[in-house]
Description:
With 123 residues, the chain is α+β, with helices and mostly antiparallel strands.
Amino acid sequence: MITCKNSDDARNYFAEKGLTYKDVSEGDIGVLFILLNKHVKRANKAGGMSTNTMRMSQKIKSKYNTNGIVKECYFFLNSHYFTQREAISFNSDGFIGFAGWADAGNKSPLMSAFVEWVDAISS
Length: 123
């Protein structure tokens, strides 16, 4: 598994694996949510995030085509001092965003979960 230094690296990894939104099903979104939970919890325990109270929001805002392929999807983080900040977004224009509000330390577990997910769905 590679390590992404920034959001562009993560987006490029998705593309390099030959993936597009057409390859992402509703089930794949569920797997990504599980991996995000795992990586955020691990980062909190290790002190890798700015606060150890960050967690994935149970809210996922998503739209799918009739065949179950993602059109757009938004994952959110909560903490003791904010709710529903962007974690990862699959925007309707094809852009994948990674916590635009966050510094590298807070983005790291999100991108590592994303890379693990890309490896899983591209296999």
